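User: Structure please.
Assistant: Input sequence and predicted structure:
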Amino acid sequence: MIDDITLDDALEELESAEDFLNHFGVPFDASVVHVSRLHILQRYHDYLGREGEPEGTDAERFAGYKALLERAYHDFVESTPLEEKVFKVFRMHEPQVAFVPVESLRIR
């Protein structure tokens, strides 16, 4: 972290997947990020939403954010955006489950 800048201030300045990965010191393969940058950021956002924002001191929060970002990045090192289906567009053509009550099948 930079000297007098708080973690919250630093987070406000981050824009790209590379910015986040560099800020949190997560080593990354540029070719993975090139293909999956939006997917990584969305997965990171999803993890934050599910697990909640890290709490504690700036150092503890930094470690929490870093762990979730590493997890999101590694999801796409081990898999592909098509396999992970982070965005709805990837799930649109999957079979849909629909419930049709037997009563609605009667001829009237």
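The chain has one domain: 7-105.
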